[in-house]
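MODEL INPUT / OUTPUT PAIR
PAIR INDEX: 1
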Amino acid sequence: MISHLKGMVEKVYDNIVVLDVNGVGYSLICSARTVAHAENFQNTLLHVFTVLSVREDSWNLFGFSSEMERFWFNTLISVQGVGGKAALAILSVLADDEIYAAFLAGDKLMFTRADGVGPKLASRIISELKEKIVGKIETHMPAQQHLVTNDVLNDVVSALVNLGYQRPDIFRVISSLQPEEGMKFDVLLKMALSKLSSGA
């Protein structure tokens, strides 16, 4: 199995990054975020984490700019009905912390922002992730990050949406706050409002 590669960025086009590793060109299928990251490393060394998908009719090598992005890719494709294309579409529109926050809040709309992901598939992703993530996410998220319970987070998100804030901004701010376990609704809401109003 190819776990990671380090080489020169030879070419970037569409969702493909061609990496030259000691004279061997690897064609990596990537999310829009990883493609944008690779564009900043044209003709320089780039370290990419990988997942090799082997099927009867094709071999595909997926590339990721971080181990966390690879973790989410592997987690997403473990959901029934989510293939590599759909997983990359989700990773292209949602950052790592946004995926986690959307999953915790049970927010289907966030997942449906990705091409090819409808409400039914979004519901399945949220439902199956509840079983797959518990006990695993802590080993991949920063040690200091302890998110609040689903109910509190969901109430805060709903309150902020009703106040006119956009969901991507809400999830970005809540994730950056690193709320402590057991934090009350009013405390988290006040913290989020403060950061949103300041434009941070």
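PAIR INDEX: 2
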Amino acid sequence: MQNRIKLIFISLLLFFCFLILFEALKKSNIYVPDKVLKKSLPKFKSQDLDLKKEISSDELFVDSEFYLLNIWASWCLPCRKEHSILMELSRNPKIKLIGLNYKDKFTNAKKFIDKFGNPYSDNMIDTDGTISIELGAYGIPETFIINKNKKIIKKYIGPLDQNSLNEINIILK
């Protein structure tokens, strides 16, 4: 009788452990940010790459109909690939380009901009990646189109290409 009670207890314990494991396997532990479209731009403060002074998002997003916020790094190969598209967009007066340098060394970021050109009217530093995470980014490059009401209206994951350039130009019309 005592062996039967032990067997039932062990069986119930194993069944309970199996249920917990089975439920845990159904849940993903991969971080995926919430949908960011139509979400208000979070407020942040960061150091400017050129001026080395702290500036807030409220100071950056004040004088344009549309903004393009591009998260980039000198060590990011896709960022190099999209840089010519950003340079082309920087010539469009309907949009203000803001760069957010992600987890980069200051000297490497400056060399990148000096070598390839500076498409950004302002270039901020995100040394630990917290600003990017608050924006809903989970990789680089990522680009956000933001309207004058500080609402994110479009998000591009990965490097901008000719198709995204055409799409951005349609948004700007």
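PAIR 2 NOTE: The CA atoms of residues 9 and 15 lie 10 Å apart.
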